[in-house]
Amino acid sequence: MTSALKTEYLTINMGPQHPSTHGVIRFILKTDGEIIYECDPDVGYLHRGIEKIAESVTWQGFVPYTDRVDYVCAMNSNLSYCMAVEKLMGMETEIPKRAEYIRVIVSELNRISSHAVAIGAADMDMGAFTPFVHFLREREHINDLLEMACGARLTYNYICIGGVHNDLPPAFLSKTAEFLDHFEIVVEQINRLISYNQIFIKRFANVAVVPPKMAIDYNLVGPNLRGSGIKFDVRKDKPYSVYSDLDFDIPIGSGRAGTLGDCYDRYMVRVEEIRESIKIIRQCLKQIPAGETKAIVKSTIKPPKGHVYFRTETPRGDTGYFLYSDGKTSPTRLKIRTGSFTGMSIIPEIARGVFIADLVAIIGSLDIVAPELDR
Amino acid sequence: MDATLISIGLDPLTAKITSMVIISVIVLLAFVTIGGILTLVERRISGFMQSRLGPNRVGPQGALQWVADGVKLILKEDLIPEGADRKLFRIAPYFCLVGIFGTMVVFPWGKGVIVADLNVGLFYFISITALVVFGVLMAGWSSNNKWSLLGGMRAAAQIVSYEIPVGMSLLVPILISGTLSMGGIMASQGWLPWEWMVFKSPFAVLSFIIFFIGSLAEANRTPFDLPEAESELVSGYCTEYSGFRYAVFFLSEWANLFVLGGLTTSVFLGGGNLPGALEGFTILSVLVYLAKVAVVIFVVIWLRWTLPRFRIDQLMSLSWKYLLPGAFIAFLGQAAYMLLTQHTPIVQSIIAVLMFLVFVFVLIRFGLKVRVSINEQRIPVNSPASNVS
Amino acid sequence: MGAYFQNIKDGFTTAFEGMSISFATMFVRKETVQYPEVDISSNATIAEKYKGSLMGMPENYRGILDVDLSLCTACQICQKACPIDCIVIDNIKCDKTKLSDGDGSPVLNRFTQKEALKTRTVTRFDINAAKCMYCGLCEKACPTSAIRHTNQFEMNRESQEELILRFVSDDVKATAEKRASEIEAEAAAKKAAKAKKAQEEKAKEKGAEE
Ligand code: SF4
Ligand code: SF4
To answer: What is the rounded average pLDDT of the residues B324-334?
Structure first.
């Protein structure tokens, strides 16, 4: 006998203004009660046409725009773009060593703060507000340090084509060293507060499993890829700047709390990357040489005709800048490849048959940042 | 009070009604004040737990913040969404209010300070709080918002499943004290910690834990705040509410916190019992009671700002797979325990003291842990020493 | 069954751990900066009332822009460096030494107290603070450090129009324009005189030839 009751799926609109979509991301959900049957991400709410803007500003003038590509890790975006232009101009070898070290220090500091926000936001989505504030408290110290270096707290525009804009203030290195000593312990404390909490683990373990093959198929990058157990990091596999001189590990997921490639693995990869970044900065503080911080670059540069694709490892993974130059004062075409976009593309696949609450965990664990997603 | 009113020349019926009205107004005002102050307390405590200060601008140390918030909420426009079930939408908050307010009737504020010491007090307590679920469900349904609906549904599922372990676990104190009246339960305990219900037997501890977790869930507190899970359901069942109606929800939520603390205190933590020598000082008794309630409330707030939230299926499995069997064990175990030790009260007391010592030991362990964490956070950052390069 | 009890145990111990940390935080310094009361403009001033461990504003803070017009050579490099065109500069040929500070004395360089020697002067220097993204490119490009970031960051105005910072007042503009026209007139007079002279000479030469 067939049931006389007819049921239908409930269509729910999640976002663009939903507390857990951090920024403006929208999902159209078809659910069966609380269980998601179909999830359709709708991107583009934060599209600002940054790639198009590049075609009308000078090569140097675009650097502040890269801050806005991903405001959670502006230094890393600066770095990607500037190194791409330097490669296009064939001046990679002219960059002073001190500038290279400063670049690595500030971008690793920024990586820590970005991961702190990512982890904290994931905690907050799980209903634990306190760890989020604790992470922000620590991030505030990083903001202070970076502000000391360049005068801005969020959109730094510190790294420039040919080096960095100005040398670090004298107290920066000692303050950074002190901060790392503090942070190393406190981050472990915050982990005890939330990351090892049984409820939290249960919320993240075995949710939204991305097997290694699927991660590659969907072109995941960065911690999301490494969370699935694939050891790939641009810093190690295609070293740029001075990363080849530094000694650090690449943490990968190992199915700590359940299945390989679940939300908890992705989350823990970030936690461990913070530790690695601390290690990197410590080495840099020891090795940083004295000297110039900027190579001589003309005020209006005209890179030779040609194109270049340069990838760096930002907190959200392998970020690539494609530049096409016609020998003019501004790029003819610029394309940015970001990690959040591929992270978003996998959501419909892994968010099938999970709870609405799990979707929130998925967004948190993939660390999707809306401005980077839409550019 | 009746007598006083009669003496000034009212006939008994009018006197009765007048006194009831007066008492209700007093209790309602107390209720509003408590709810309001608790919002402030919660915000300040959560601030401190997050290295913040919390609201401290309105009045000395922010003491009047709750008044300002209340005024703001009342002055706001009362919006009713299009397509809402207007009648239900309007009435829903008051169900919550009545559900919580009704408990005040059997609230033992101290020895002998109770509006009505019903002989089925505890039973009444459990039943009247069930009204809240109607309010929440109505609010969720009538808002014509899918998030609210999900919130309402979650609330219904949650409260209904947690009533069972809570009710079951309350059977243990009832077994021990042999009465359902709140005053009676309180009177069956002493003022010393090991005379409290919670330390009366190992099974009482178990039932206390189950009761506490279960009532957290009933009061929709984190880790069980699924009905209004902010990051999932926007604001759950009260998403569409604004203005006064929202204030009522808000208030009943925090008053619920007080009710939770009050019930826990009077059933498990010795209520407002005083040492024999001080018997009769009602004010002192009330103060002792309120102090205990404050501690319980602090623990609840503290839990809220520490733990993440469960998922709906985990919530259900916690209730049915963990708490319910636990409550059964506590109940049966307690019965057996009483049977075995009923002729040897000395054994009972020794076990009680032992359990209290274990508790003290746990507290000390905890204190040591806290000290470690404090020292970790005190590691300097941006100290003057680091100013030189 | 083992997992069942393990779950219970882990649930309690980890919650215990977490609670100890959130409790401990209550007794450690609060990081909130009570902003209007605490002067955050430098590390020294913030230390007066604030007990936490955050820093004040650094010296190189990139706040609202300020221009020292006595230094500005009206070269417009900053205008070209700005990626979003929020600087607008008009200039005219004008000898600044002849402009006065109002009381008759010549315009002085704010930093060196020497007379400003310029041959061009700005008649309009507008920075749209609403559009500006405080990137610092203009400051870095300026050859004379005339345009600088201050550590001001509060700028509440009623309308966007009021957020356009105009550094050249109408008076100064008028004086400069007057001066410019004077210079022009002088130059024209000179030129005319020169031409006249030349003509006269030519005429003389002609006369001599004849
Ligand atoms: S700070 Fe940047 S945006 Fe602002 S005026 Fe200068 S160059 Fe333009
Ligand atoms: S770059 Fe400096 S000197 Fe040139 S116009 Fe701008 S402010 Fe004046």
So the answer is: 88
User: Is the separation of the CB atoms in A165 and A158 below 8 Å?
Assistant: yes
Is C207 a domain residue? no
pLDDT in tens, C107-159: 555 445 555 555 667 777 888 888 888 888 888 888 778 888 888 888 888 88
Q: A20, B309 in Cβ contact below 8 A? A: no
Q: Return d(Cα B298, Cα A221) in angstroms, integer.
A: 44
Asked if C149 and C63 touch (Cβ cutoff 8 Å), the reply is yes
What was the pLDDT predicted at B2?
Answer: 59
Measured in Å, residue C67 CA sits from the centre of ligand 2 at 8
User: Cβ contacts (< 8 Å) between B226 and chain A: which residues?
Assistant: 357
CA–CA separation, B93 vs B238, rounded Å? Answer: 9
pLDDT of amino acid C122: 75
Residues B199-231 pLDDT 10s: 888 888 888 889 888 888 888 777 888 777 666
pLDDT in tens, A146-167: 888 888 888 888 888 888 888 8
**Distance, CA of B80 to CA of A331 (rounded, Å):** 53
How far, in Å, CA of B96 to CA of A318, rounded?
Answer: 52
The domain total for chain C is: 1
Q: How confident is the model at residue B5 (pLDDT cuts 50, 70, 90)?
A: low
Separation of alpha carbons B237 and B149, rounded Å: 7
pLDDT greater than 80 at residue A299: no
Q: What residue owns the CA closest to ligand 1's atom 3?
A: C132
CATH code assigned at C146: 3.30.70.3270
Distance from the Cα of residue A67 to its chain's centroid: 12
Mean pLDDT of chain B: 82
Q: Mark yes or no for CB contact C23/B307 under 8 Å.
A: no
With the most atoms of ligand 1 within 8 angstroms of its CB, the residue from C67, C72, C80, C86 to mutate is C86
What confidence tens digit (pLDDT) does each residue in A333-344 have?
888 888 888 888
A111 in Cβ contact with A367 (< 8 Å): no
Which token pair is B271? Answer: 């209520």
Q: Say if A258 is an interface residue toward chain C (CB within 8 Å).
A: no
Q: Specify whether the CB–CB gap between A369 and A22 falls below 8 A.
A: yes
Distance CA C64, CA A151 (A): 12
Q: Please compute the mean of the pLDDT values over residues A325-351 and round it to a whole number.
A: 85
Beta A306-314 vs A317-325: how paired, if at all?
A: antiparallel
Assign B303 a pLDDT band (cuts: 50, 70, 90).
confident
Q: In this predicted structure, what is the pLDDT of residue C96?
A: 55
CA-to-CA separations, A216 to A226, A230, A348, B221, in angstroms, rounded: 10, 9, 16, 41
Average pLDDT of chain C to the nearest whole number: 77
Nearest-angstrom CA–CA distance, A368 and A23: 10
Establish if C193 belongs to a structural domain: no
State which residues form the domain around C70: 65-172
pLDDT digits (tens, 9 = 90+) for B7-17: 776 777 887 78
Contact A337, A17 (CB under 8 A): no
Interface test with B, best of C9, C16, C25 (most B CBs within 10 A): C25
Contact B150 A34 (CB under 8 A): yes
ipTM topping 0.90: no
Q: Rounded CA gap, A111 and A281, in Å?
A: 11
> Does any domain span residue C50?
no
Residues with Cβ < 8 Å from A232, sequence gap 6 or more? A225, A226, A250
Cis peptide before A16 (omega within 30 of 0): yes
Dihedral angle over CA of A14, A17, A18, A20, nearest 10: 110
For residue A11, list its beta bridge partners: A30
pLDDT for the residue A48: 86
Q: Is residue C25 part of a domain?
A: no
Ligand 2: which residue has its CA nearest to atom 2? Answer: C142
Encoded amino acid at C114, one letter:
K
